[in-house]
Each structure stands twice: as structure tokens, then as C-alpha cells.
Design a protein that fits this description.
- This protein has 458 residues and is α/β, with parallel strands linked by helices.
- It has three domains: 65 residues, Alpha-Beta Plaits, CATH 3.30.70; 288 residues, no CATH class; 89 residues, no CATH class.
- It has 19 helices and eleven strands.
- Strands 6-5-8-9 form a four-stranded parallel beta sheet, with helices on both faces. It has a three-stranded parallel beta sheet with strand order 7-11-10, with helices on one face. Strands 1-4 form a two-stranded antiparallel ribbon.
- Helix 15 packs across helix 16.
- The radius of gyration is 25 Å and the shape is globular.
- It starts with 10 loop residues before the first strand and ends in a 5-residue tail after the last helix.
- 41% of the residues are buried.
- The N terminus is likely disordered.
């Protein structure tokens, strides 16, 4: 098993701001957070970069790393790789062409939309499905948080993940080839992805199934939205911008990042589209327990309403979804009127892009691996069972771990003490094996000396 330090994470905690409230610890779907010395700490081996802790933190101590926006100035041909959900953040009166113009005014030389390759990605998935009928259900690789969730929490299902690059990578390949075919040197091209979530930053910085991404930088969607919106407001309604070639996407391509977006263009007879990390986990547990059979394809997304509800979304997810549906309706009308969508423009590159879309099989990295040696792992498992028998099973979190099971595991793995449990402390005190001062010291180690020592004011 790889070391947890081998995996890139885009989420970090500013311990100067953290108040140790434990909100993040309680809400983390993989129990990746612990409280020590009054601060929250992330266990990298469990973290899937879903960003739920980021959204829930009341003190804004959890932040998402991004590349410096000024990095785009290093490249004569800087490319903004924008998702359709980014355009859905803006009010209806701000047209797509206006947003593209603002992006270019901010310094981007070229703009490509991620969903330009959505139908090519769908074709690659359908081909893989036809060639791998023995791997049902096939699970989409679109959402990197889900890929990591399966790796660490449901490792037995890792082989079911379709080993393909996501549309953002396929579009990046297309953008790069389009520019290099114009004799532009690769070193002059900088591809910057505008991400709606933390997980996709991690996926770019350390892609699953391949050594390195061709994307040169990642920009948070909320920060770029603020820059673009400010630029548009400064320029005013009467600002005249040059005619721009904007993406002519199909309705299916525009909607592909929303819930049911992939499912509607897959060839599977029986498939499910599930959004929301808790809903996904509930379904995967049933799948692992053989409670669900006969499913051919699963579209799983960590966020409610999929990318419209992502952690870096500035707009209400339902409003964003409605704007994207509105744009899709207009696209469908243009298609009926004979307008050629960009997917047909990419047709000449389809086989090349599909050929480039494959990655290595996704490998499991279970957070429950107790030891590489099976015999030692079984011994630890039995020890965890015995330790749990001494715990109250009320999951109060006062020990600095989210559950009694988590504390028992941490204790056996040598990262926590059983005496961290306040109930176990009382038991030891009754037996004369622990002094009240020692119990106080344990609580100070977890929740901070100032917090525990602070006197209650009358």
C-alpha cells in the first residue's frame, strides 16, 4: 500500500483560524479528520478531497489550494479550459460570448469548453462497455472524488471503474493538438482548468491511472467568477467586444456534467445516476452486499446536482442547473435549424482522442488495510474487536475521533490512546488506575489547554 504522503490533496487547514469545533470531523464521509491540541487534522490516507469539510467549516479554516492566476502570463498562448457549469454561474442577461470576451480581456488567449469532448468521452465509454461485459456494473470515472472514495472505502469495486480520462483531460488534449497543429511550440502553451471542486484539483495534480496531466495549472471557479463578473461590471453594458467564436455544443454535451447527464447518452439498458456523497455511499454498500444486481452502468457524483452543486460554485445549484437547461434548449433549437455543433468539428480527431483517453486500471488503496502481512492484519483486527468492547459506542467525539470504531482503530494502529475516551477514563478512575489530573491532561491534549482550563464565568 502506498504511503498516505504519496497522494496529493488540495484541501488544507489553517490552524491559526481553526477553533476545533469538530464540525468537519463529524461530517467527513471517510472519517479522515481528527482533533488534536484543539485543532483539526486531516489524515491523508483517508481524505478523498470531496470538500464537504470546506463547505461546513464555520471559521473558514479549511481552504482549497490553487495556482496563482498570474501564472497565465508566463505563456504566450494561455488556454482557459472552462466547464459549462462555470457559464451557468452568471445571470441570464450575460451571454456566453460576453463571458468569453471577459476571459480574454483578463489575459487568456484561447478559451475551450470542457464539454466539447463529452460525446467523444461517451463513445469511448460505450466501446469499453462492449468490450468488457464481464465487469458489470461499470462505474464512471467522471467524478474524481467518487474514484478516490471507491479506492479507499470500497476497494473491491475499484476494478469496475472505467479506466478513461475525464472529459476535461480529453478537451485539454484537443486544445493542445489544435494549437500545436498551428505550429505553436508546446512550451508557449499553458492550459489552465477552471475547477468547480477540490477533487478535480487533486485529479489534475496527481491523476489516477497516469503519471502526469498535460494541464499546466488549476484556477478555482469561484475566484475566476469574481474576476470575470467584476470585469464585465467595470466595462458596462455598452462595452463593444470583437466577434468571438463561441462553442456550439449539443444539448447532451451541455447537460453532461449534471445529474443524469452521462446516463442519458450511455448505451446501458439498466443504469443509475446518483448524486450526493451519502446517497452514493448508501448505494455502494448495497452493491458490495449483493443487494443490487443486474446494473450495467453507474453515474456517481459526490455533489448534489452534480457539478452545479460543487464546492466552488458561487450560485445556487438549482439556479445554475436551470440556466444550463435553458442553454441546452437553445442548443437543441439551433441543431434543428441546421447549425453544426462542435462535436462534429472534432469528428476528424475522434479516433485520436479516443486512443489517447485510456489510462491504467484504477488501483485500490483501502483505508482499512491494517498491515501488509495478512497474519498481522488479522491480529490487529481481533485486537480492534476487543478494544471496541471497552468503548461506549455512542460516538460522542470527545476522544478527538469521529466514532468509537475510529478510536479503536487509531489505538491499534498506534496513533491514539484508549485513555482518550472519557468513559474509559471514568472506569480507570473508579479502579484507582487514573487520577483526575491525568484525565484532565488527556482532554487538554485533544481539545487544547486553554479550552479545558478556561473557567466558567458566573
Amino acid at each position: 500500500m502506498a504511503n498516505e504522503d504519496d497522494f496529493y490533496h488540495s484541501l488544507e487547514i489553517d490552524h491559526d483560524l481553526c477553533i476545533g469545533c469538530s464540525h468537519c470531523m463529524k461530517i467527513c464521509p471517510t472519517e479522515a479528520i481528527r482533533i488534536r491540541d484543539g485543532k483539526a487534522w486531516i489524515q491523508g490516507g483517508r481524505c478523498i478531497d470531496c470538500g464537504i469539510c470546506y463547505k461546513d467549516c464555520p471559521s473558514k479554516a479549511i481552504y482549497i489550494k490553487q495556482d496563482d492566476f498570474d501564472e497565465i502570463q508566463k505563456y504566450p498562448h494561455s488556454v482557459a479550459l472552462v466547464p459549462a457549469v462555470f457559464l451557468g454561474q452568471f445571470p441570464d442577461e450575460i451571454r456566453v460570448s460576453r463571458i468569453y470576451a471577459a476571459l480574454k480581456d483578463l489575459g487568456f488567449r484561447h478559451v475551450f469548453e470542457v464539454e466539447s469532448s463529452a460525446l467523444i468521452y461517451a463513445e469511448a465509454k460505450n466501446r469499453y462497455a462492449r468490450e468488457n461485459t464481464d465487469k458489470e456494473p461499470l462505474i464512471s470515472s467522471f467524478c474524481p472524488a467518487i474514484v478516490r472514495l471507491i479506492q479507499v472505502k470500497y476497494p473491491a469495486l475499484a476494478d469496475n471503474i472505467i479506466p478513461l480520462k475525464a472529459p476535461l483531460d480529453i478537451s485539454a488534449i484537443y486544445a493542445l493538438k489544435t494549437l500545436t497543429d498551428q505550429k505553436i511550440p508546446r512550451k508557449e502553451i499553458g492550459i489552465f482548468y477552471v475547477t468547480p471542486c477540490a477533487a478535480k484539483i487533486a485529479a489534475v495534480k496527481q491523476p489516477v491511472g497516469e503519471r502526469k496531466s498535460i494541464i499546466d495549472g488549476v484556477i478555482n471557479m469561484d475566484s475566476l467568477y469574481n474576476r470575470v463578473f467584476k470585469k464585465i461590471k467595470e466595462q458596462g453594458k455598452d462595452y463593444v467586444f470583437p466577434p468571438l467564436k463561441t462553442p456550439r455544443l449539443t444539448a447532451d454535451a451541455i447537460l453532461s456534467t449534471l445529474t443524469n447527464g452521462e446516463r442519458r447518452i450511455c448505451m446501458a439498458k439498466r443504469s443509475y445516476a446518483i448524486d450526493g456523497i451519502e446517497n452514493v455511499m448508501d448505494f455502494l454498500e448495497k452493491l458490495e452486499n449483493d443487494e443490487i444486481e443486474g446494473v450495467e452502468f453507474l453515474e456517481l457524483r459526490a455533489c448534489d446536482q452534480s457539478c452545479a452543486g460543487a464546492t466552488l460554485s458561487c450560485e445556487n445549484r438549482f439556479l445554475c442547473s436551470e440556466r444550463m437547461y435553458g442553454r441546452a434548449r437553445k442548443a437543441a433549437e439551433r441543431e434543428r435549424n441546421g447549425e453544426v455543433p462542435r462535436s462534429q468539428e472534432m469528428e476528424s480527431q475522434k479516433e485520436y482522442l479516443i486512443e489517447c483517453s485510456g489510462v491504467e486500471a484504477v488501483q485500490p488503496r483501502s483505508m482499512m488495510v491494517l498491515d501488509k502481512d495478512i497474519a498481522k492484519a488479522l491480529e490487529k483486527m481481533e485486537k480492534i474487536r476487543r478494544v471496541k468492547a471497552n468503548l461506549p459506542h455512542i460516538d460522542c467525539g470527545l476522544c478527538g475521533a469521529p466514532t468509537c470504531d475510529a478510536l479503536a482503530t487509531d489505538y491499534v494502529m498506534g496513533t491514539a490512546e484508549l485513555e482518550n475516551c472519557v468513559f474509559y477514563q471514568r472506569h480507570l478512575e473508579e479502579q484507582g488506575k487514573m487520577l483526575p489530573e491525568e484525565s484532565l491532561g488527556k482532554m487538554q491534549q485533544i481539545w487544547g489547554e486553554d479550552r479545558i482550563s478556561e473557567k466558567i464565568k458566573e
